[in-house]
Structures are given as C-alpha cells and as structure tokens.
C-alpha cells in the first residue's frame, strides 16, 4: 500500500512516503479489477491525495501499515472506500484517530536494515456504508498461510518500478506464499532483515509496488486477510518476494487495540 511498500540500491538513499524507507516502494504484472471484486480494499489519503492502501475491518475501523502514517496529526488522513479509482468516486471518510503499533521501527542493527511491527489501526469519524456490493469488511486470518498458498494483492501502485505515477484504476496480482527461511536468507544477502511477524509472497513478474503500501494480501479462494503490504527489494525483482506484515501474528494486537478504541472512543 503502507509500505503493502522500499530500497533501490542504497538503503540510506531511501526516504519514501508511500513505502517504508529502506527496502523499495511497492502492482507489477497485475490485472485490472473493479472494486466489487475486492470490496474490502480502501485507499488511504493524505491531504486528499492517495498515499497507501488499507483493508476494511468494520464500519469505523481500517487496517493499514504503520509506515504509511508519517504524521502525528490523524486529521490529515482520510479513507476512500467503494471506488475502483484512487482519486475519485466512492465514499470518503475522515480519520479520527490513528494507532500505530507502539513497537513499530525502521532501523539498522549491525549493518542489517530491519522493519518491524509495521501495522496500524485507523478509527474513522463516520461509518463506511457496508450495505453495498462495493464495500465489505474482511475477516482476519486465524493462522499463518502455508508455503505455496495462493493469494492476491490489490492496489493502485506503480506498474513499472520507479515510475512513481501509480495506477489510475485498481489492479490485482495473484501470488504464492514463499518459504520463510529461503526468503529470509535471500534478503540477508542485501543486508535486509526479514523479521518475525512477516510473510513473503512471490510469483515471477508480479509484485506490489509504490503506493500499494498498507494494502491487503488475501488468501484464495476464501478471502481472508493474511497480510498487509510492507516492503520489498525493488518491485518484482527476480527471486525477491514482496514482504508483508503477517495479520495472524498481530491478530491479538489488532483485537486488543480495537477493544481499547471501543471502550475509550466509540462508546463515549
């Protein structure tokens, strides 16, 4: 989307608003879709301009990547739901509060760049209308996907790495979950750390890219939310899977955060 989202050649040269700074911004090799095929998908806007993707959890709760939220002022963000296009249509709802994971970090340890806990919960000021074919909530995965599991990532990100233009309409790409240990080993050759709480997904020639950060990775055919676009080495780089925050790994954090929101905000 936030960060799905990272590194060109030198990690130190990256500072991206759309994907995490570090490994490169992130759909490459995807197909056009209409929002009815992914009604859980939303766009995250900053000052009214598309920045990242997100997933509808409920009428007032959206999940995205922590790295998508670079400002402490939640009021600069809004969500576009129910549109196949990033810049018009659908329903736009302002964000009331943004809750980044308290241990989210992007750092370098012993020359290895690490991104961790890249997840955030957004509380909206108003309700998304879920009584249409264009807007639907999505269920969280109850387990991590097995290697080889077919999945799909959606977004309005670049279709060519480095273009920084984004896509004018929604795209989707089918991927497969990669072996975690092989993925981790491959990234270590670039001094990039794939940490616990991440999953890897890859199909040759297909990947998320710039402006896809924070978007949903869903299992097929059951359409459960298994990942959130986080980062990767370039886009669709041979043998380098895209890196996603594992929703199952953060399921308890998501539930606990939403419970606190409901107690402190929604029911007040």
From TrEMBL:
UniProt xrefs under PANTHER family: AT26814P-RELATED, POLYSERASE-RELATED
Source organism: Drosophila kikkawai (Fruit fly)
GO CC, alphabetical: extracellular region
Molecular function terms from GO: serine-type endopeptidase activity
Protein name per its UniProtKB record: trypsin
Catalytic activity: Preferential cleavage: Arg-|-Xaa, Lys-|-Xaa
Enzyme Commission number, as recorded: 3.4.21.4
CDD domains in the record: Tryp_SPc
Signal peptide: 1-17
Taxonomic superkingdom: Eukaryota
Alphabetized InterPro entries for the sequence: Peptidase_S1 (IPR050430), Peptidase_S1_PA (IPR009003), Peptidase_S1_PA_chymotrypsin (IPR043504), Peptidase_S1A (IPR001314), Trypsin_dom (IPR001254), TRYPSIN_HIS (IPR018114)
Subcellular location: Secreted, Extracellular space
Stretches assigned to the Peptidase S1 domain: 27-259
Keyword line: Disulfide bond, Hydrolase, Protease, Serine protease, Signal, Zymogen
Main location: secreted
UniProt key word Hydrolase: yes
Example GO BP: proteolysis
Family label: Belongs to the peptidase S1 family.
A Pfam short name: Trypsin
